[in-house]
Design brief:
The complex is a heterodimer of chains A (311) and B (309). With 311 residues, chain A is mainly alpha-helical. Chain A is 69% helix and 0% strand. Chain B has a domain of 184 residues: MetI-like (MetI-like fold), CATH 1.10.3720.10. In chain B, helix 10 runs antiparallel to helix 12 and helix 11 runs antiparallel to helix 12. Classes of the chains: A mainly alpha (311), B mainly alpha (309).
């Protein structure tokens, strides 16, 4: 049976302006990172971590210049003073101003944390990216090597290197030694993501348009792994700060008159024995605060980046 | 599966060899040598000392000699202590360190998962927040600070427990607690997230709808599956304990291997540093290997997949 279909003329008229407006998206579209930031802002714990970190960074830059003392300046007339109006955090057993020394130490601790995390990021992304894009045999060889390096406890490496290179310029040695093993988790993470993403449609489309592997890695895969990488960096910073504090506490870190939060805690331990508890209290609280802030920020970032937790 | 285990053992052996070689090269690339510092030494004595420690031979020969001695379990002599060899120090210090580490591990393995389970079962209620505050504190406060706090408040102010030293059980409580806090917190966090994931699974709903009591659902169905990730991080935790022991032994004045390792570094006792490092590395890698093999037995799913990591 054949049915006669009829179309009226007005079906083919252009839509009126009002109807066009109905199709428009009224709210501005939220970009990926803006969305992450929006969700991070709702996480009070992570935001307080971020604020504490920013405060620490600002104070580490300007804090040594606030009350007019130098970090190496000794004044034997005012040794072991409790916190007071002149020396806000008190003085140590050589009469050095602990307020200035603490911020000087925080500067070193934060510097070591960020530099080590940055090196981890650089080496890890390159190594993981290359391993992921290479053929199976190269990939598995590279991963075996990474596994071997990773199973060496990093503190042993740091200790060995600081013995070999001497402790004169230990900031550089320490950062180097920490990154020597620290990049491996990042490389494993990036490799996993690359293996997954290089099979995706957009990577294939790019390849069929003649893109090289390097281009695909740089333009398509790495930008799409930035989220987990960022979380990893945020958690690598406190690891490095912790390692530095532990080393300095053992007397293997920075040498006086330089200070880090770890060396200050080590000096403070001696003060504690003779009843000057304030000398260890401040560096101890600061180390814990920094570790806490980075940890909650990293956790918050991970939650904010996880689309499954989207409300 | 036998193939997997053989492969893991082979990789571990290669790793141990790599560490020995790297340590050897690093220790022998230190500028000068340890006897140069002792001034006013007659040249004859100096040469004899070099000969005694085999430092007069070419480096490759020293390396093969060292490897051969290691194979026999001989870690060499100490350069500073005239009476004790590295083996003596390991024999003396390691049991102490191992006891401390084991006790800390037991504490962490008892309380960590329990804390995580309690948190997961009461998600977003006060027990959850309390456990996670404890966990975050445990991760944020380094063990040397934790140890100092314990000494100050529990030993010095209240004097419940001895401040430092070694000998009785009371001496071991504070250091092993200080050592256990970090792994405990780590396990608790891991356990919480893995429990939350498992509790959302269909088979938990099935078990509940079959009318099984709540405790049986939690213990038999949820915890048994949620504990798997904990097993896989055990190796890392042992490594954490090892590093922590350096610090905790220093604070509490415990005559363990960590303490003699740290003092060997400040004494620049190269043979002792080399021997202890290699010993630590071997212990750690054997632990990692054991954990990996144990994991195959604990998790039946691994046998099904070809590429087990």
């Amino acid at each position: 049976m054949k049915e006669e279909m009829s179309y009226s003329e007005d079906l083919f008229m252009p839509v009126s302006k009002e109807e066009k407006n109905a199709e428009r998206i009224h709210r501005p579209s939220i970009k990926y990172w803006a969305d992450v930031w929006r969700r991070l802002k709702m996480n009070k714990l992570a935001m307080s971590g971020l604020i504490i970190i920013l405060l620490f960074i600002i104070m580490a830059i300007v804090g040594t210049k606030i009350n007019g003392f130098k970090y190496y300046e000794q004044d034997l007339n005012v040794i072991n003073q409790k916190p007071n109006l002149v020396h806000w955090f008190g003085t140590d057993e050589l009469g050095r101003d602990l307020f200035t020394r603490t911020w000087f130490g925080a500067r070193y601790s934060i510097l070591i944390g960020f530099m080590a995390a940055f090196l981890d990021f650089l080496i890890g992304v390159i190594y993981g990216g290359v391993a992921g894009m290479a053929n199976r045999r190269v990939d598995s060889l590279m991963m075996r090597i990474a596994e071997i390096i990773y199973s060496i406890p990093y503190l042993l490496v740091v200790i060995l290197l600081s013995v070999v290179f001497g402790q004169g310029d230990s900031l550089f040695v320490m950062i180097l030694a920490m990154s020597l093993t620290g990049w491996v988790p990042m490389a494993i993470l990036v490799r996993g993501q690359v293996l997954q993403l290089k099979e995706s449609e957009y990577a294939m489309a790019s390849e069929s348009l003649g893109a090289t592997k390097k281009w695909i890695l740089k333009k398509h895969i790495i930008p799409n792994t930035l989220g987990p990488i960022l979380v990893n960096i945020t958690l690598a910073v406190p690891t490095a700060i912790f390692a530095e504090a532990t080393l300095s506490f053992l007397g293997l870190g920075l040498q006086p008159p330089k200070s880090s939060l770890g060396t200050l805690a080590n000096d403070g331990l001696a003060g504690l024995a003779v009843g000057n508890g304030y000398q260890i209290l401040i560096p101890a609280v600061f180390i814990s605060l920094i570790m806490f802030s980075f940890n909650v920020l990293g956790d918050g970032l991970r939650d904010a980046l996880d689309p499954r937790l989207r409300k | 599966m036998a193939k997997y285990i053989i492969k893991r053992v082979a990789i571990s052996l290669v790793t141990i060899w790599a560490i020995i070689t790297i340590t050897f090269i690093l220790m022998h690339s230190v500028p000068g040598n340890p006897f140069r510092s002792e001034s006013k030494m007659p040249p004859g004595v100096y040469e004899n000392l070099l000969k005694k420690y085999g430092l007069d031979k070419p480096l490759p020969e020293q390396y093969t000699i060292y490897l051969k001695r290691l194979l026999k379990g001989d870690f060499g002599e100490s350069m500073k202590s005239r009476v004790e060899t590295v083996n003596d120090m390991i024999n003396r210090g390691f049991p102490v360190s191992a006891y401390l580490g084991l006790q800390a591990l037991i504490i962490a393995l008892c309380f960590g998962p329990a804390l995580g389970v309690i948190a997961a079962l009461n998600q977003n209620k006060w027990p959850d927040y309390l456990s996670m505050v404890i966990a975050i504190l445990g991760i944020s406060v380094p063990s040397f600070i934790m140890g100092t706090i314990f000494i100050q408040f529990l030993a010095r102010n209240i004097s419940w427990l001895p401040i430092a030293g070694w000998g009785t059980f009371a001496h071991t409580i504070l250091p092993s607690l200080a050592l256990a806090m970090m792994p405990l917190a780590y396990i608790a966090r891991l356990m919480r997230s893995s429990m939350l994931e498992i509790l959302g699974q269909d088979y938990i709903k099935t078990a509940k709808s079959k009318g099984i009591s709540k405790s049986a659902v939690v213990l038999k169905h949820a915890v048994r599956n949620a504990i798997l990730p904990i097993v896989s991080v055990l190796g890392t935790l042992v490594s954490n304990l090892l590093v922590g022991s350096f610090v905790v032994e220093k604070i509490f004045g415990i005559p363990g291997l960590g303490m003699s390792f740290v003092s060997s570094i400040s004494n620049r006792d190269y043979t002792l540093i080399m021997g202890t490092t290699i010993f630590y590395a071997i212990i750690l890698i054997v632990m990692l290997l054991l954990v990996d093999i144990a994991y195959v037995f604990v998790d039946p799913r691994i046998k099904l997949t070809k590429e087990g990591r």
